[in-house]
Design brief:
The structure is a single chain. This protein has helices spanning about 1-45, 80-85, 90-95, 135-150, 170-185, 195-200, 210-225, and strands spanning about 45-50, 65-70, 105-110, 120-125, 155-160, 200-205, 230-235, 250. Strand 3 and strand 4 form a beta hairpin. The protein contains 7 helices and 8 strands, in the order H-E-E-H-H-E-E-H-E-H-H-E-H-E-E. Helix 5 packs parallel to helix 7 (about 210-225). It has about 250 residues and is of the alpha/beta class. The chain has an 8-stranded mixed β-sheet with strand order 3-4-2-5-6-1-7-8. It is about 45% helix and about 15% strand. It folds into 2 domains: about 1-45; about 50-250, Leucine Aminopeptidase, subunit E, domain 1 (3-Layer(aba) Sandwich).
């Protein structure tokens, strides 16, 4: 009888040990699965491709040209004014008809009608000129990122107002736009898809004269965000532009 009880006890101990072992394996599996999934997601989220060029915004090989306009600046100035001219006054007519106003975070998506290489134009309301600042642009960037994700657009060219009239320097504008995009990627509540962000390509094209400032802004953002994000800056080849500081940038192969 005692032997039978001992055998049952040993059997119970073996089964219990096996169950504990199996549970431990399951916990380890779940832990590593979650660990790998989380880190893979973070790895994908924290890639950003920045493409800089001396060419004009109208020649950028991307899906959409993004620009901003103010509710109290008429006629339209800068990039939005130039687009209005290319579209034969279409944006001015929209303003007259109140189909767009320029209020803060207003978004208007229109086809480019083949007048520029990007097939779409996204106009973003910037509010009042006196309220415009680099901090305001950084605040806007996560919203812009979310809007692009909803539209399924991952290739874009951004051209926002800068200069003395707007109290925002070109280099600072580029820096805060990139940093603001990073802010949007870190906001988990937005549930930004990692594969989409991994394919994100942001073009900046303010012409040859402003190219050094654009590059400076991109490099500054890259340095600030280096601990949590891998930013790849692609620029023209050395044959196309000389005398620039190339630290941390990549020239595409011809």
């Amino acid at each position: 009888m005692q032997n039978h009880e001992d055998a049952k006890l040993r059997s119970y101990e073996v089964e219990n040990h096996f169950l504990l072992f199996s549970s431990s394996k399951a916990l380890i599996f779940v832990f590593f699965r979650n660990f790998l999934t989380s880190n893979l997601r973070n790895f994908i989220l924290k890639l950003m491709n920045i493409i800089l060029t001396t060419e004009g915004i109208d020649l950028q090989d991307c899906d959409v040209l993004v620009t901003g306009f103010f509710q109290d600046e008429k006629p339209l100035q800068g990039t939005s004014g130039w687009i209005d001219w290319r579209l034969n006054g279409l944006l001015s007519r929209f303003l007259i008809d109140r189909r767009m106003t320029g209020i803060w975070k207003e978004t208007v998506l229109i086809p480019s009608q083949g007048r520029i290489v990007p097939r779409l134009i996204l106009l973003v309301g910037l509010g009042k000129v006196r309220e415009y600042s680099s901090l305001r642009v950084r605040e806007l960037s996560p919203y812009l990122l979310s809007t692009l994700k909803k539209l399924g657009i991952s290739s874009l060219c951004i051209s926002f107002p800068y200069g003395e009239a707007y109290r925002v320097e070109c280099a600072k504008l580029i820096e805060v736009l990139i940093e603001g995009m990073s802010d949007g990627m870190d906001q988990k509540e937005r549930q930004i898809d990692g594969s989409w962000v991994g394919n994100l390509r942001i073009h900046f094209a303010e012409g040859e004269e402003k190219f050094p400032e654009v590059l400076m802004g991109a490099q500054t953002a890259k340095g600030i965000l280096a601990p949590q994000m891998d930013i790849r800056i692609l620029i023209p080849t050395s044959d196309e532009i000389d005398g620039i500081h190339r630290e941390g940038v990549v020239s595409p192969k011809p």
